[in-house]
Amino acid sequence: MGSPAIVVEDVTKSYGDFRAVDHLSFDVQTGEIFAVLGPNGAGKSTTIRMILDIIKPDSGRIEVLGGKIDAARKNRIGYLPEERGLYTGVPVLEMMSYLGRLKGLSRAEARSRSMAILEQLELAENAKNKVSELSKGMQQKVQFAVTVLHKPDLIIIDEPFSGLDPVNRLVIKELLLDFRDSGGAIVMSTHQMNQIEEMADRMLMISHGQQKLYGPVDQIKERFAKHAIIVEGHGDWSKVPGVVSVEPLANGRNGGKLLNLAPDATNDVVLAAMAQDSSLEINRFERAVPSLDEIFIQVAGEEASADQRVN
Amino acid sequence: MSNIIEVARHEFLSIVRKRSFLFTMIGVPLFSIAMMILVIFIQINVAESGTAQVNSLGYVDLAGVLDAQIDKPEQFTAYDSEDAVVAAMDNDEIDAYFIVPQLYMRTGQVSLYARGSVAEEVQSEIEAYISTNLMANVEGESGLSPELLRDPVDMSIYLESSGREITQSGFAGLFVMPMVYSFVFMFALQFSGTFLMSNVVEEKANRIMEILITSITPTELLAGKLLGLGLIGLLQIVVWVIVGIIVVVIGQSQNLEALSAITFPLDILAVGILFFLLTYFLYASILAGVGVIAGTEQDSRQIAGIFILPIILPFFFIANFITDANGTIPTLLTLVPFTSGSSILIRMVFTAVPMWQILLSIALLFVSTAFVVWASAKVFRWGMLLYGKRPGILSIMRAIFSRVETGSLARSSKGAQS
Q: Taking Cα atoms as reference points, which of A274, A276, A278, A277 lies closest to residue A265?
């Protein structure tokens, strides 16, 4: 991690009586993938639009790429909006080179960069096609190509994988990881928790415009980890020393069980005890760390029930 | 600045490349040239087929008017009696004949007999032959030339106030300029303006607007669009002026009466182009604002229609312009920015428009255009991320006159808050 690509400090934004973003603070470092998540209407788009200077915050401070946003800094950002924007009636290459020139590329640069990316995305032969003639997945890739065309230092991307098949998802994922590894910063807003788990270094979860979770993804998951283990196999797990209770796994397959442990029991001791018990057959043994999905549902659910109590 | 030029270039190309634009810009002028050539062709053909029927023509002069046979056309043959000329006709010696009856000097009646239609030229040849001979008698006594006697008054009217000369036949011709101006203007604006609008609507619907405004400022975007559209306007002027010149030159070389009277006074032309461009920007920026607020293309067209109507408004008051070109209504219409373009041209034809009015009109138009561009930039900035419900006139006014920012109605509309 290097210097911050984005600094958001105590930012608030209201639309009339509605507070879309409420005293929000976070930063995004260069060389990291930063995930922003939250329920619909949580203030994600408003936050992103304030970073992009499309709308102005009521109060607070935002710095992008080392200072207040200006035309030169805008040219170092690649933005992929949630609902995709492309000119449908224009040939792919021409549209890309137009958008590239608006980002400050020269005519020749815009063309050659566009061709290079199209080749990388295996779309070179579609360069002369109109966007409307491409499949949805192809359009999605073109959209991505537009985002990185001008070699930005920061990419802000809404739902990068929607509408992509697994093969193309992998292509885009590789490109994003390469971008990160070469020192770029990525802000990714998504509902696909598995993508965050696979790719994101740090994350911010907001709800009602407020920060709910913020930090490295591993640490957040750790925080929500129960004092429990997950096992698969056969036998009577309840008689193992240190196990307090046995629950079937909510999404368990292969007879998976969640074993809640006594406060003084450690994983090592429990595992050792299981290994010595010949009546047990262990196929899987792991700490019960919740998925981001579960954390999301838990946090958002608490919010919802809190709302209900208030109302 | 380079961003503005890039947007202008993109806008220009995307409009010019549309098939419907090419059709209207090249197709319509080509169509009018083709129509004219067709008319000329038909006229020549009719004329030719007419004269072909009458290669030789006989006549009987019972009144003794043609005794001297002054300037007798070669194909005219005199016969002594009606019987002789009828016989010659039956024998195909002649194609037609006319009879100048005994009472001609009192009635002026001449009868022409032919197998089919007779070209106008043949008729005028007969008329000329008769009147030349008729005049010859008078000439000796009065010393007047036969030409003068034949057409004693050729009146030219000099309009003291505008210094323009109006001949009777040229009256309609003077009208052509302002008419064509308004027509071309409506046409040019209707087409390119709707293209501009539909581009904006599309950009908004496609959400490409969000990408654009993270690259350039809304003002740059709007300026580029207006510049591009201005270039389209100029291109249209050039094409139409060229077509106009071609039409008039061809027409005049063919002696088409309707066209020969058309005049292109340079002062009117110059003022016309200035007003054209200013009014063009006025309307273009309104239409850009409409495009960004209207949700769909259909919506935007309907709203745009209301704004385009005033261009032809002066023609509803054409009677006022003719009878009293410096009257209240024409003067008012000259000063109101939306109608000033066509009004000032009509007035300049009929009267000397006071210089202060021309200057005031230009100043008013310039100020309103500048204001509308500014207001439109604000509406543009505010409306470009507004989705869903179309905002009312009040909120639009608020957007123009107070510090309201992008998408600030977003709360009440879908998709902008997450």
A: A274
User: Nearest CA of chain A to the CA of B211: how many Å?
Assistant: 7
Does a structural domain hold residue B401? yes
CA A89 to chain B, closest CA, distance in angstroms equals 9
Structural domain for B114, as ranges: 57-154
ipTM: 0.75
Lowest mean pLDDT among A23-27, A233-237, B139-143, B352-356: B139-143
Q: Where is mean pLDDT largest: A28-42, A156-170, A240-254?
A: A28-42
Q: Is B418 an 8 Å CB contact of chain A?
A: yes
B411/A16 touch (CB, cutoff 8 Å), yes or no:
yes
Contact A77 B214 (CB under 8 A): yes
Distance CA(B354)–CA(B343), nearest Å, equals 14
The answer as to whether B29 is a domain residue is no
- Residue found by looking up tokens 């197709």 in the block: B27
pLDDT tens digits, one per residue of A147-188: 888 889 999 988 878 778 888 888 888 889 999 999 999 999
User: Closest by alpha carbon to B337, among B313, B305, B369?
Assistant: B369
Q: Which of B214, B408, B410 sits opposite A52 (nearest CB)?
A: B214
Report the alpha-carbon distance of residue A277 to residue A236 in Å, rounded: 10
Architecture of domain A226-287: 2-Layer Sandwich (3.30)
Flag whether residue A85 sits within 8 Å of chain B, measured between CB atoms.
Answer: yes
Q: Hey, is the C-beta of B405 within 8 angstroms of any chain A C-beta?
A: yes
DSSP designation for B248: H
Q: B149 and B156 in contact (C-beta within 8 Å)?
A: no
Chains A, B: CB contacts under 8 A, how many? 86
A-chain residues near B406 (CB < 8 A): 49, 54-55
- Which two structure tokens, joined as six digits, stand for B374? 């500014």
Are B303 and B178 in the same domain? yes
Indicate the CATH number of A4-221 among 2.115.10.20, 3.40.50.300, 3.20.20.10, 3.30.70.1130: 3.40.50.300
Is-contact B290 B315, C-beta < 8 A?
A: no
Contact with chain A for residue B408, Cβ under 8 A: yes
Q: Are residues B312 and B192 in the same domain?
A: yes
Residues of chain A in contact with residue B15, where contact means CB-CB under 8 angstroms, are: none
Tokens of A205: 């979860």
The pLDDT of residue A112 is above 90: yes
pLDDT digits (tens, 9 = 90+) for B261-281: 556 667 777 888 888 888 888
Q: Strands A4-15 and A59-64: what pairing?
A: antiparallel
pLDDT at B207 over 70: yes
The answer to the question of residue B307 being in a domain is yes
Where does a domain end: B154, B182, B204?
A: B154
Task: Tell me, yes or no, whether B336 and B187 share the same domain.
Answer: yes
Q: Where are the domains of chain A?
A: 4-221, 226-287
Indicate if B149 and B187 belong to the same structural domain: no
Contacting residues of A for B213, CB less than 8 Å apart: 54
Please, is A151 exposed, middle or buried when counting C-beta atoms within 10 Å of its C-beta (0-12, 13-18, 19+)? middle
Q: Could you tell me if B201 lies within 8 Å of chain A, comparing CB atoms?
A: no
Residue of A nearest to B1 (CA): A102
Residues of B in contact with A40 (CB under 8 A): 418
Alpha-carbon distance B254 to B44, whole Å?
A: 9
Q: What is the pLDDT of residue B417?
A: 38
Provide the number of structural domains found in chain B. Answer: 2
Domain for residue B341, yes or no? yes
Residue where one domain finishes, among candidates B154, B178, B194: B154
Q: Which residue has the higher pLDDT, A41 or B138?
A: A41
Task: For residue range B94-133, list pLDDT tens digits in order.
Answer: 888 898 888 888 888 888 888 777 777 788 888 888 888 8
Do B191 and B334 belong to one domain?
yes
